[in-house]
Write a structure and sequence with these properties.
- By secondary structure, the protein is mainly alpha-helical.
- The protein folds into 2 domains: 81 residues, no CATH class; 66 residues, no CATH class.
- The chain contains 8 helices and 2 strands.
- A hairpin with a 2-residue loop joins strand 1 and strand 2.
- The termini are far apart.
- The relative contact order is 0.10.
Length: 168
């Protein structure tokens, strides 16, 4: 089937907008709100899987920057669908190698997938919790090199990230 770029871009952007609207519900004390978030991300993960089946990874040159970023967000939040995350990771890797996607986005998705697999992350992008008012990353493979590796893919040093997100 031919790629209808505008329709695919609009669909991805609509899914990202819905994601942004419901994201906070994923942390709600209300089980019904948490369930609504899980259902949304599962539906979006299923649809991203179908898009990848049909078109591969939706790159910016195919669907525009905003829609490509939306696809990345959907993959990031497909936490209960490791098959979708792993496939998105492989396709995004290929897109980065071809110069069609962001190494920064790849780093975030790689860390997210590793954490979801119960493994140590590389770049320290995934936060395990807050300790003494500061975000603490999930365990990293090489914590001493974390900021160096972050810099290589265009991610700010962890301390800068923490300072920017620290409670006022």
């Amino acid at each position: 089937m031919a790629l209808d770029r505008a329709a695919l871009a609009a669909e991805l952007e609509d899914m990202a907008a819905a994601d942004h609207r419901l994201a906070a519900k994923g942390y709600s004390d209300d089980p019904a709100e948490r369930l609504a978030w899980r259902r949304l991300t599962a539906r979006h993960g299923d649809r991203l899987g179908a898009i990848m089946d049909e078109h591969g990874w939706p790159t910016a040159d195919q669907v525009g920057e905003e829609a490509a970023r939306a696809a990345w967000l959907i993959a990031q939040h497909a936490d209960r669908q490791l098959d979708v995350q792993r496939r998105a990771l492989r396709l995004l890797e290929q897109a980065v190698e071809a110069g069609l996607a962001s190494p920064r986005d790849l780093a975030f998705l790689r860390d997210r997938t590793l954490v979801n697999e119960g493994r140590k992350q590389i770049y320290g992008t995934q936060i395990a919790g807050v300790q003494d008012g500061s975000p603490v990353p999930w365990p990293c493979e090489d914590p001493a090199r974390m900021d160096e590796l972050r810099a290589e893919v265009g991610i700010e040093p962890f301390a800068v990230h923490v300072a920017r997100h620290a409670p006022a």
